[in-house]
Amino acid sequence: MEIIIAATKTCPHRPSLEKLFQEAWLPYRINYFEDHPEIFEKYQLKHSPLLIVDGKVESVGMPEIDIVNDLKARNRDFSEIRISKRDKNHMIPKNIGTEPGVVEVDVTWGSIQSIKAAQSVQTIGELEVYQHHMKGYSIIDARKPDTSDGVTIPGSKNIPYEELIERMDELDENNPSIFFCNGPQCPQSSTAIKNLLDAGYPADRILYYRGGMHDWITLGLPVQKL
């Protein structure tokens, strides 16, 4: 659902309407008449604000509360409250210029994953990943190569999630393995874990690093080339 508030930059009602939508967890964007004269031409309306939903004018001026409640009822998908997907997106945080420690993060791609990949599987963080690595235990990068941007967590082994069932014999038989992918928006490692469990792999030999490459890089931790 695409919600647009079309308003003048001096509209006194716009801040109240924005606050109303924020409290309702409704996604929206602002199109100012001064920057988008085509709105005048398309709708032939000069009132401010206009509420435009999926290309249709839902309200002229401040909307009635029934309109807002209707939009809330239509907006049942959790992913709908996110910023709209960019036309050109990237999964891995990218360095900005030459300054170390500053990265650009794309928040629009993927689908938000549950904190647990499965009820029987423990979710861990960066400290546990580091300690696991220092013990020499297995860390599995479950991403397909074309989603990796050529970098991974040091010491990890890449087994794409689609190949894990056939390659279970490559996993550590004595100690848990950590599985990760591109982070909270990426379903690859959680899919890998579900596939392993369905194939009878023991849950106590699986650890889920949900933060993945997103959190690893944004916390300034080292990476290595694949």
TrEMBL record:
Residue stretches making up the Rhodanese domain: 133-225
Pfam family, one: Rhodanese
Highest taxon of the lineage: Bacteria
InterPro entries according to UniProt: Rhodanese-like_dom (IPR001763), Rhodanese-like_dom_sf (IPR036873)
Species of origin: Gillisia hiemivivida
Name of the protein in question: Rhodanese-like domain-containing protein
